[in-house]
Each structure stands twice: as C-alpha cells, then as structure tokens.
Amino acid sequence: MANPSVILTPIANDSPTKRLPPLTDSAAGIGRLSQEQGFPPITEVPLELGGKAPKRDDMNGALNLLSQHTVHLQSGGLYLYNSALRYDKGCVIVLDDGITRVQSLVDDNPENPNDGLGSTWRAIDAGDLVRDWARRYAGAGIRILTNTVLTAEQVGNWVDVESNSVTTLPSVDSVPVGSTFVVRNSSPTFETVTVNSLGGKVGGLTSFPLESGELIEFSADPAPDRGWWITSRSQSNAAFSGVHIGIPMPFPGAVPPPGCLMMVGQAFSAAAYPLLAQVYPSLILPDLRGEFIRGWDNGRGVDPGRSLLSWQLDAIQNMTGSFAIGDDDTILRATSASGVFSVGGYSTAPLVNAGYAILSAYRFVNFDASGSVRTGEETRSRNVAFNYICRAK
After folding, report:
1. Under 8 Å between Cβ of 387 and 252
2. Region annotation Disordered: residue ranges (predicted)?
3. N or C: which end of the chain has fewer CB within 10 A?
4. Per residue in 148-207, pLDDT tens?
C-alpha cells in the first residue's frame, strides 16, 4: 500500500464553525452530534415531517477531532496517561516526561505509571534494548558467580553476574579497538556489583557499580584515561542510576522522574518496590513536605533522645530576663533582655545603660520582638522550596 498523503493540520482547525462533539446524546441536544450516538435518527427524518438537518459546525467539529489524532500519530506522537481510560495488555503510552514509553502488562489497567511502574507496567525502551542485545549476543554468555577476571578471548560475550562479586574486564590494550562486553547484574538480592578493568577505567571510574537488573554495554577505547567506556545502558532513568534506593533528593519539578517516588508520607507495596522495602521496612515513606532534614544525633549529645526517622516540632531557644519593682510599688526596672519593650501600649526605645531602664507609673510590661526582627508563624531559616523524591525499585 502506498504511503497516504500527509495531513499537515487538523481539518477545520482555523474555522470558527466547529463544535467538538460532547460525549452523550443528552449533552449534545436534539438533532446534534454526540460521541456516543453520532448524528441521531431525527436527522434522517425529512424536514417537512419534523426532522432536523445536520449542522455544519457538528461536522467540522467531528472531522477536526478525528484529524487531531491522525496528525498526532503520523507525526510519531504517543499518548499520555489518561485516568478516564483503562489500558489493555500490550497498550503503549508515554509518561508525563514526554519521553519514556511504557507498556501495560495487564488488561483493564487502572494504575497510573507516572506514580511508579510496579507490576502492571514496564518501560519498553529498556526492554527493547535488552532484547536487541540478546539477539546480538545470543549463545555467547558467561555466567559469573564469584570474582572473575575476563580474558581477551572472551571479548564480545554477554556477561551475566549472578552474585555480589567483582568482574574485571581485560586491558583495552589486549583487545581490538571497539571491542564490547555486555554486563548484566541479574542477582535479585544485591543492589550493586562492581566492574573494573586491568590497567584502565570503566565508565570513567576505576570501578563501576552495576545495580540489580541493570544491563550496560562497555566498549574498548584506547584513548588516554578512557579504558572501557559506556556506549549503551538499559535503564530509562539513567540520570538517577547511581543514586541509592530510598535516599531523599531535592527535585525542582512537580512530577517525579521515572523510577522515583515523591516522599509525602505514603504507603507503598513491598511487592512493587522490594528494594525500597529493605530501606523502609514500615512500608511508609517519610512525609518531607515543608520539612528540613537533620543529621541523627547518634550519641553525640547535641540532639539527644531521638530515633532515626523521628519527627520533631519546631522550637526557639529560651530567652530569660528579670523585672524589678521598686519599694514604692511604682517603679519598674527591666534587666537582661533584648528587643523593644512597650509599656501600657506605648513603645519605648531599646534598653540602654547596661540593660536597665526606669519605667514609672505602670504595673504591666509587654514585649514584642517584631519591632526589631522578622517574625512569623514558625521559627525557620532562609530556604528554597524543592520537592523531595527518592529512587524506588
């Protein structure tokens, strides 16, 4: 079949006479187009017998709505998640980042993949890459169960690391330029394994951490200080791949990136996030909205009596002073205080003469710090607002 003509713009896009069809017949009105029924039967009845003529703006609206989707699809676009829909097994949509493609693993899927893929969605970009590598390296696998030094003769193989071990690649000087190894950490019980090389670097480091489930292709680069270099990796959220599970991270966006969760005090499933459950056995993330993080005292004595993840209310260090009433019961002396005093509703100057002032004829003294410092509903330092997120697997 020949490639059809391209629709460069939705039909009637600039027409003032278009009416996008509402969902129901009742919302559309008598004789009008709806998504559920299309043009109703009354538009088939002759006008002289009480029928209703189809409307131009209804037709333009229907053509415009349908061709919007055609233009979107022929331009290579995918659809964002929509809570009004239920996705069947195999359906592909894109996350709110507009980049990461995910595929539903179940029928009638109600879960929002932007909240975490869990067991009902998978990142198909990573899966496609893994399958492509599997085809290229089929039948050439090396299974590693302990610390292993690979040889130049094993170049081009698929290396499957199944234990918490160190895998050492051969020196780049001993293999042809562009030689590759694909290394996968297939151990579900260890978060990272280590990859290094003889006489060189891996990924720009002397050793490279490889997380559980991660798969990376290394290529030999003889350039000085290069060694084995990363040419591809399977994780769709590679920017966060070096960050450990569950560690709070300040994030400037309202929606967390793929593979991360907001830290808003929510419960999570150990089945969906088994590694996160090891960090937070309560299966509840801390609620860090509007909170500062403080280092745990751990016996130092600066902030004693605290346990890890315990919450602490705000406070201000106590300020003390004294007031002296003279023998004639009319003279007040204010001592050892700061700020501005008011007497009977009238402000006085800050205390002078070593903190003493003579205040006559009043029994009551009121103190208000707002006359000299910024005040608010809480005690706080200067700050910038971020969302706290964490990696979740």
Report:
1. yes
2. 1-21
3. N
4. 888 888 777 778 887 778 888 888 888 887 778 888 777 765 556 788 888 777 876 777
pTM: 0.37
- Residue 197 carries which side chain, given as an amino acid letter? S
Q: What is the DSSP letter of 128?
A: H
SS3 content of the chain, % helix, strand, coil (to 5): 15, 25, 60
Sort strands 331-335 and 358-360 into parallel, antiparallel or unpaired. antiparallel
State which amino acid sits at residue 153.
E
Return the SS3 of 278: helix
Q: By the 8 A CB rule, do 17 and 56 touch?
A: yes
130 contact partners, CB below 8 Å, separation of at least 6: 215, 234
What structural domains does the chain harbor?
A: 1-77 (no CATH), 137-240 (2.60.120), 322-371 (no CATH)
pLDDT, tens only, 61-77: 889 888 888 888 887 78
Do residues 31 and 43 lie in contact, with contact meaning Cβ atoms separated by under 8 Å? yes
Contact 186, 214 (CB under 8 A): no
**Cα–Cα distance measured from residue 298 to residue 304, given in angstroms and rounded to the nearest whole number:** 8
**Sign of the CA dihedral running 20, 21, 22, 28:** positive
Residue 4 has pLDDT above 90, yes or no: no
**Strand 192-197, strand 166-169: pairing:** parallel
Phi/psi-derived region of residue 60, left when phi > 0, alpha when psi is between -120 and 50, beta in every other case: alpha
Report how far residue 305's alpha carbon sits from residue 317's, in angstroms, rounded to the nearest whole number.
17
Which structure tokens are listed for 372?
Answer: 């000299």
What is the C-alpha to C-alpha distance for residues 229 and 200, in angstroms, rounded to an integer? 10
Alpha-carbon separation of residue 68 from 7, 8, 88 (angstroms): 9, 10, 23
